[in-house]
Each structure stands twice: as structure tokens, then as C-alpha cells.
Queue: 2 jobs
Job 1
Amino acid sequence: MNIHEFQAKEVFARYGIPVPRGIVASTPAEAQAATEELGGRSVVKAQIHAGGRGKSGGVQLVRSPEEASAAAEKMLASNIVTPQTGPEGAPVEKLLIEELADIKHELYVALTIDRGHRGPSLLVSTQGGMDIEEVAAKNPEDIHTEPVDPLSGLMPFQTRRLARQLGLDQAVASEASRVLSALYRVFVENDCTLVEVNPLIVTGDDRVVALDAKINLDDDSMFRHADLLEYRDINQEDPLEAQASDLDIAYVNLDGDVGCLVNGAGLAMATLDVTNAAGAAPANFLDVGGGATPEKVASAVKIILSDTKVKRVLVNIFGGILRCDIAGEGIVLAYKETGSTIPLVVRMLGTNVVEGKEILGASGLPVVFADTLTEASDAIKNLKV
């Protein structure tokens, strides 16, 4: 689950990480009043779950309350398009109005899971305020990585080493080390998959301040964090992904036109590979799970069919806990309730496979059966849509 910048800064503040003074606004009038309260000048920042907003007009420095109102009116009436949003953009419903900062240095800091060493890693760079992917591509030596042992945690010697790599003098290095340790606590104690500050600044009076804040949370840990679950903004999520999440269905919306219904994450990934190998493109990743009922299967199929990109459906079921007849009943139920005529290619193996195929065969649906993934890929490729 992603959260907004202003929410991430609320979390930071609870851990003693300095952040600029800011006020959340939902209307131009509120943005104007906030700027007046902050001394007449501010930074107006659109709150969306995507990076790159600064290059897309989503971050504006204003020099009067009236300018803040005008900037807010423009942002709140638009969807901001960035490389992370897709062409449709992300709706702006809230703004963060912040005081101006006296910036002496801009740094980059992030914590994420490094699969290479199977634990957290702390990344820092002197190239703060920039697109870190661009820095990694052009000047990888400017990014310093510190693997962290999850048993011992981030040690003081590691934060001191990172402060030296950032070129900080002694007075600032001590505070930077404290902030890095606090960011690690945020990462671990809240089950984060990403904590990013870009930039982390050193001010003119040598304070270390998180000028930006990004937190991504592990969806599977949210049962432990009811307080953070309140931060969820469903309007920033893909509607189909949000619907699937509420139904406890693992679903990721993709760009293709082949809807994929699969049970099991590994089989789902293999199905995506087969679809691509056939010269087609999957419209989604979907793992309906092992213990699904006909109703849950039907809900999953309805999500697939409601995607306007989908022109054909590939079903790949290995019957075990989810029996093939249960899957067949759910598919038929979804098609009957939606009235869809989108053609299907169905590959079923395992428990009650004969019954599952009989249910689908007698349904009158436009279904083609395949016994192997190779046959399924050929059928998808040759399917007329």
C-alpha cells in the first residue's frame, strides 16, 4: 500500500525525523489561507501516489497567497501525468502547502529490500533532488549501498560511514546519522517495502530535514497496522486492483488484451510468459488462490471481463484445492451474469478435470480447450477477436 507524502511525513515526525512545516489543503481557499499562515510564500505540492510530479507541474513555488490559490485551482482540476502514472494520470484531491526551505545541500536516502543479500539495504547519494534512476544509469558510483543485517539492525558505525560518503562535516554528520537510524526504524517497525527521501536536505543552519517523503507498505502486513491502513486512498489506486484487493484476489493490471485467470502465483507467472511467447500480451496477473469458491472465481472473472482492454481470456487451472469443476462453475456464473461473449481458451488439469470441462462445454460459452500450455498459446494466437 502506498501513502501520500503528507502522511509519510506524519510517520517521520513520530520518529523524530525533522520535516518542514506543512498544511494540507483541499481547496484553493485553503491553500491561500495556508500560505498566509506560512508567511506569504510556500511550495504547493500535489499529493499523488507517483513520482516525477515536479516535472509535470505538480510542485510549484509561489510568492503570494494569491499565487497559491491559482496554483491550487489548476492542480485540483487536473490529473497529473508522470512516467509512473500512465497516460491517464493521477487525480489530485489534496495538496501539501509547505514552508520554503533554506537548502545548502540536497541528498538522496532510501531503504528497500535487497534480494541479493536477503535483507534491507540503505542507499545514499549526494545527487539528491534528481531522478535517482538517471543517476544510477549515468553515474552509479554516486550511489552508496549499505546492506543491513536484519538481526543486528543498522549499526552506528554504518551510519557514520554513510555520512562520510556523503561528505558531511562532523557537526552535520552526527545529526544525519541519527536521522538515518530513525529512517531504518520507520522501515522495519512499519513493515515497509520502501522508504525514500529525495531530497534529504542540509539547511543553511546545518539542520538535516526530510524535504520529501515516500513510504510504501507491505500489503500482507497491514493486519498489524490498523493505524496505517487508515491512510489508504482508494482514489489513487487502479480501480480493478482495488476491487480485487477487497476480494482478497491477487491482481495486477497490465497493458495487453489477454485476460488471465490462474490459480497459483508461479503458474500465473508462467502463463504470462506463455502469452508473451505466443506474440500476445497479458492484460493482467491474477491468482485466484487455492481455496476459492465458485462465487470467488466468478468475482475474479468479472474483474477480468470488466477490463475494456480484454479481447480474449486464457484460463490455466491446475486442480488441487481449487477443483476444476469449481473453477468451471465460477467461469460460467460470471459470463451469465455479465452477458459477455469474449472468447476463452481453457487449459485444465487435475482434480475433477472431466467435470470442469463438461460444465464449460455444456454452457454454450465460446470456449476452446487445450491440454498443454503450448496448445493454449497456439489457441490464443489463432483466436479471432
Job 2
Amino acid sequence: MKKISYILAALAMTGMLSACSGNQSAAESSATISTETVTKPSAAESTVAAFTEAATDSTNPPTHDAISIPIPSTADTASIIPEDVTVRIGSLKGPTSMGLVWLMEQSEKGEAVNLYEFTMVTAADELLAKMVSGELDVALIPANVASVLYNKTQGKIAVIAINTLGVLDIVAADDSIQSIADLKGKTVYMTGKGTTPDYVFRYLLSGNNMSEADLTLEFKSEPTEVAALLKEQPDAIGLLPQPFVTAACAQNESLKIVLDLTEEWEKIQSDSKSRLVTGVTIVRRPFLEENPNAVAVFLTEHQASAAFTHSNPDAAAEQIASLGIIEKAPIAKKALPYCNITCLTGEEMKTALSGYLQVLYEQDPASVGGKLPEDDFYFQK
């Protein structure tokens, strides 16, 4: 118990646990939400209510390329004999759980290949405590938190998939802003000074031969403050996560997404194929070593579940609502395009995630646990 308390305390000192908290309202969660838009599955993990405000047809989905996830066939699991073990999975009540709804339903009907036990929570520290204590086998958590946990547990966890990509956008009414360079001389309002959104944006500035000296960064304590400011000042520019982007655009029809930071990241990282990562799926190493077949089957079913949310948004929305992840199916359907749900594994996962963590490490080593994880952090099936 002392070891668990020590690890959780260490994580809290890095600012990760409070940032992951899902039991706050949009008005209460302040900078911690925007921090987690890059480091956790989505800001929506702790602000499902914000989607209610955002449920309007006036806002278009993000403009970057759609995520393509091949749907595995039954042949992919037919040759794998699963162990007689229940895989205990933890996720946050939000986009990471939304990507699992098909699998949850299959499990409830007894039609999944593996046996599963799902736990949805509103605070990420609950997941971390259960992973450290061995009460969970698999968890879906913020990408850099996984690196911190790996370092704090001396490699007792491994990443098996990326489950969500970036959800940060520049929002403005100014159509002339078409590149990072167009922000020169302007003021950008955002939250999360000294956290991953801050690091990501500074990295994008440097990748465009700019620095903080070329513009003014004004930090607010809460994303809702930035959204309110955008509503009151038509010429303001904000850096916000989803779902606050959607909410802000719904409140002011002149606002729009002028820059998708996932796209901007990919412009700079086009050669390395690094991605702007939000959430990852981790497994306890002892469980992985003892039950390799169960993990292999889960990865296939994880991929199929993520693909289902893209190819069947109406059915997925109904499932999301029935599970209480988002109150109403129409709101859930509206939310899905903004969640960037995916399931990247193997070498593609390693390339995307290692490049992302490298950027964070160069900005602040503490953001990834003081050092970059070793190769065994990245599970290669």
C-alpha cells in the first residue's frame, strides 16, 4: 500500500492526476482539462456536459483526414486460443469508453472472444491506483501519463495501442489565419501554462521558425474562460480542446476552427510519422506475460470496436447513450467526429508515440516521468 501511495503521490507532483480528473464540471476543471486534451483521451472525459451546449449543426467536424481503421474478421482471432481468464479493463467516462462500446455490448451478450470486466470511472487517478494494485489488467489513459507510470513502476506496464489522437484547435473569426505564421503579432488565449498543450504549441511555433516573442500568449485558468472571452470579443483568438471548441462555436456563429493542431503537427513531423497523441491503452506487464493470447485477442477486438464507432455512428451513439457515457444519442453522435478515436498498434504505434514523447521530453522531462521510456514500453506483437 505504501508503494501505491508513493507512485500516486509522484504522479500527482507532475500534475498528471489532477489533470486527468473526470469528476469536475467544465467550470471547475480549469487548466487541468486543457492539459489533458493532449495528454488524455480528450477534454471531454471530464466535461461530457459541454457536449450538450455544443449540440448544434452550425459547427463542422475537424478538417484533418478521417481515421481509417480496418475491421478485423473473425479469422483474426480464430487461430488464437484465449486463456480462461477475465480481462479487467478500466476507462474514463468519455471518448475512451466511447471507443469500447461495441466490445462492451459484445461482452454483455456473451459474443466476445475473451471474457471481460469493464470499469468506467470519472477520475483517472482511480484507474492508476487500480493498475498499480493489480485490480485492473488494462487501462486507457493519457499518453504521457503512461510514460510517467512506466518510469515510476520501473517498467511494470506496457503500451499496446494508441486509442485517441489530438483534439486541440485554434478558434477565431479571422479567415486570414491559415497557418501558424499568421499568428505573428497576435494574442492567443489558452489554458495550461507549463502543461502539454503549452509544450505542443511552443513546439509548433518553433517548427514554423517562430517563438513566444513573436506573439502574445495569455493564459486563463479555465477553458470556459477562454470560450467566454471568444464570445465577448469577436476578434479574439483561442487555443481550445474539444468539446470546448464546439461549445464556443455554438455560442458565436462567427467563430470557426482556423487551425487544427493535429494537422499542423503532421506538417512538421511528416518525415518522422510522429503523431499528436492523446490517449493510449496500457497493460500490466505481469498480465501480458502470463496471458499473451488474451491480450492478442483483446487488441483485435479493441480495433474492431474502434472501427465500429466510425462505420456505425448511429448505432454507436445509441450504445454510448444507453451506457450513460453521454446522456442523449444525438449528442453522442455529434461528439463522435471530435473524439479522434483510433486503434494504432505495433510499429505504427511506436513511431507515432515515441516521437510525441520525445517532443514533450525536450520541452520538460518531468512531463514524461523524467526520462524517455525504454523500447519495452512499446508492445510489439
